[in-house]
Structure formats: structure tokens, C-alpha cells
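Write out this protein's structure.
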Amino acid sequence: MATPAMAQDAPVAPPAAQRPAGPPPGVGADGWTVSVGFAPVVSPVWQGSTDAALSIFPDLRINYRDEFFASVPDGIGWNAVREQGWRAGPLVKLRFGRDERNGGSPFLVSGGSDALIGLGNIPAAGEAGLFVEKRLGAREQVRLRTEVRQGFGGHEALVIDLSASLGGRVGRNIWSVGPRATLAGRDYVQTYFGITPAQSAASGITAFRADGGLVSVGLGGTVIRPLSRTYVVTLFGGVDRLSGDAGGSTLVQERGQRMQLVLGIGLSRRFRL
């Protein structure tokens, strides 16, 4: 179930939906399929922010059968294992950087925050690793997924994403909803939520040394509505609560909030090559 869920600052284009990797719904699994569209997204300016921003993301997805997939939210991956409800293989994702003046969304339309001034910019990071997914049920309506990725560039920590979802159909509408959690190593949490003495002096935020562990827990979902054989509208959203040292960071406590909400809607056209 596709969703162009790209939102918060440090996200890999946030997982506001539980989307199994594979051919887009409504398009055959033979050969190459492409989805092109756009998605207005309202999200926190930066991960932990109280201020909201509007970004309009391009939504480009490429699939080859049930083997190869590529998009900004899902990254670039290969379903090397495809049998008895199992999917597993290599995966590479992009995590947008963070700008101290506008949060860092490359597609920002409106909104901003001055809470990060003095903290400096964080460059974009790549994350490479593996995913394992199991689909259960007569129609594979239950999905359990784990991603383990090593960061390079903006941060150099291990990141683990865990998610579960239940999906189904109501008329022509395809829905999916489920919980998720993110864990990360020390360098990740310190990079996005730690405050060094120098940053404290420049920003006025109390210094804070962060450790690794649980970063957030939340719930995400999508509703997909086909308009025709090629056009699809996707409504997606998610709410997450920052946890551990991410939620206890002085950046969040003094300038932000733990609860993070993302809402968006996408329109895309899908076709075969």
C-alpha cells in the first residue's frame, strides 16, 4: 500500500504508513511499473518541534515485478527472498538533513522555526542495511517488518525500525494501520537530540549528552482510493511519541514537544513501462 509519507526533519521520509514493498496496488506485477505524483504534507518543522510546516513532495516510485523497488520513502531495495509470505533483502535509504533556520525539508512551502538557531546544520545521511518482512493471513492482511540500517554521512549509528500493520478493503478503498517503533545508536540520538557545550552557548539550550536506545513509538496508517485504472489518491497520517533520551533531550523539553503528528494526501498516476 503506497504512501508518499515524507515528513519530519530527521526522518527517512517518515513511515506514516505501513507499506509492503512490491508492485503498487492496481498495477500488474509483470515488468516495470512507475508511479508519478505529488503529496502535500503537514508535519513538525523538525523532529521534536512544536511548529508545523507544509511541504509538497514529489512522489516517484519505480517497481520491477515483486523484486526491485525504489522511492524516497521506501528507499532502494531488492526482495531477494519472496516465498511463503516472507520478503527479505538489502535496503538503502536517505535521511534528509536538518537546517538550523528552516528545519531542512527540501520541499518546504510554508512554516518554519527559530528554535534550532545556534545548533548548526546536520548534513543528509545515507542508511544501508537489510529488511525482513512476514505477511500473515489468508490474504496476507497482517504484516510484520523489521529494518536494520547502518548510517553514514549525517550520522554513523545503527537504526532499527519495527512495524506491524493490519490491512483490508472497504469497497474500493484500501486501508492499512498499525504500530511502529524506532531504536538507534548513540551517534544518531546525540546528532539529532544532543546539545554540546558550544551549541548550548550559541543557542541558550541546556547542554545534554544523549545515549542510544528507543527513539520513538507511534501509530501510522493509510487509506488508498483508486480514481481510475491509473490515478490514485492516498490519505496518510501518523502520530509518534519521542522516547528515551530523544524525548528527554533539553532540545525537546525546552523548545519542542514529545508528540509528533504528520498528515498528508497524495495524488499519483501509475503506468507500466
